[in-house]
Design a protein that fits this description.
CATH architecture: Up-down Bundle
Oligomer: single chain
Helix content: over 70%
Structural class: mainly alpha
CATH class: Mainly Alpha
Distance between the termini: 93 Å
Shape: globular
Radius of gyration: 22 Å
Number of strands: 0
Length: about 400
């Protein structure tokens, strides 16, 4: 029996990784992020399509949890707070508006459709994040990473992630049964923010000398990588013991290690480990999507379809309007707004938290996950269109100036 269970486990890990890799590759071939392919792979493997993988299988859920800790550790390693501070007020205003508007709109939609307060809060929270990884990749591929609009978008997206992590910690406390009160929210926020501050201050004193000692000791990259992973897991555990979320600790560990001279080597090593665990998280998220709920012929599914459409609408509109918040900035507001639309991995973390805590049923979870997928899918072509049009317009302006110079005596 044990042999059969181990054999099935090995086979399912092979299927998960292979399907994630293939679907991710196909998504990239059509110009989309690999995460979309990994989500689709999960949908196909799930009980509503092929029936090969059950979202409730504990061992794969644990692997997925480990994957999300490593993912947030990687995000922390890539985040440079000094660059964020140099972006200025425009990025801050966009970030705050990009959190407040989608949250309010999502909350109103859910309450209008009859869902209770906690469901509305978690759904609204899932709309607040912006995927800095997806946005940065698109802007880089299009050759516009250094544009003013791009700098505002990236700064706001990074700040969105920081705000989103605090909101995530607050929501995590609420889903565990805490009442939604001003004091309760302030307390949870204080714990989350306080842990990050303490972790950064203490970590900057203790971790860099430790990493330097290991590096000077002649240990090779694998040993340095394993030490970094151990620190991330340790800080994730400490965050959980302090009453915060595990991903807060992992993110804080990434912020500290990201400022060490060995950060580049650590990022490379952690990325290799992430290639194994992180796709499992996205596949497991996709597995929980029940495509049968999207059948419009079934009367019970119509509310799910209505919620999906409304969430996509308010998710896109909320972030797009946030791009116009810094009215004084000469940057193109439409590019900023579209650049803020993709939700990516942080939105999926909210969705997974909602269903794991029993706040979401399968219908709401599917609607939120599809919202993440659609917003992630729609941003790259829209950005490409806007930036290409902007480049053409700039070329036309330059040609007009040349013609005027030629005509003038």
């Amino acid at each position: 029996m044990d042999h059969l269970e181990v054999t099935r486990f090995l086979g399912m890990v092979l299927v998960i990784l292979a399907s994630a890799r293939v679907m991710g590759y196909l998504a990239q071939k059509i110009g989309q992020p690999a995460v979309l392919g990994e989500l689709v792979a999960g949908v196909l493997l799930g009980t509503s399509v092929l029936g090969l993988l059950d979202v409730h299988e504990r061992v794969f859920r644990l692997l997925a949890e480990l994957g999300v800790v490593i993912l947030l550790f990687e995000i922390g390693l890539e985040t440079d707070l000094r660059k964020l501070l140099r972006v200025g007020g425009a990025a801050s205003i966009v970030a705050v508006a990009g959190v407040a508007l989608p949250f309010a709109l999502g909350y109103i939609v859910c309450r209008s459709l009859g869902w209770d307060n906690l469901v509305a809060v978690v759904v609204g929270a899932s709309l607040t994040a912006t995927s800095v990884g997806i946005t940065a990749r698109v802007l880089s591929d299009l050759g516009h990473l250094q544009d003013q609009e791009s700098q505002v978008v990236l700064g706001a997206a990074v700040l969105d992630d920081l705000i989103g992590l605090v909101i995530l910690a607050v929501v995590a406390g609420l889903t565990q049964g805490q009442e939604i009160t001003v004091w309760g929210v302030a307390k949870t926020t204080g714990i989350a923010f306080g842990f990050v501050v303490i972790a950064l201050l203490v970590g900057r004193l203790l971790i860099p000398p430790l990493i330097r000692w290991v590096a000077e000791g002649g240990l090779k990259l694998p040993a340095l990588t394993m030490l970094a992973i151990m620190l991330a897991l340790g800080m994730a555990w400490l965050a959980s013991m302090a009453g915060s979320a595990t991903i807060i600790g992992a993110f804080a560990a990434g912020l500290v290690l990201g400022r060490t001279p060995q950060a580049h080597d650590i990022r490379q090593g952690v990325a290799h480990i992430g290639h194994f665990f992180v796709p499992i998280f996205f596949v497991m998220v996709g597995t929980a999507v029940d495509v049968r709920l999207l059948n419009p012929l079934n009367a019970d599914n119509r509310q799910v379809l209505i919620l999906t459409g409304l969430l996509v609408l308010v998710a896109a509109v909320g972030k797009f309007l946030a791009g116009y918040a810094p009215f004084w900035s000469p940057a193109r507001k439409s590019v900023i707004g579209v650049g803020m639309i993709p939700r990516g991995e942080v939105g999926l973390i909210f969705a997974q938290m909602g269903i794991s805590a029993g706040v979401f049923d399968a219908g709401i979870f599917s609607a939120v996950t599809l919202m993440v997928m659609v917003t992630t899918f729609m941003a790259p072509p829209l950005l490409k269109h806007l930036l290409s049009r902007g480049r053409s317009g700039q070329g036309a302006d330059q040609l007009k100036k040349v013609q005027e110079l030629v005509v003038e005596p």
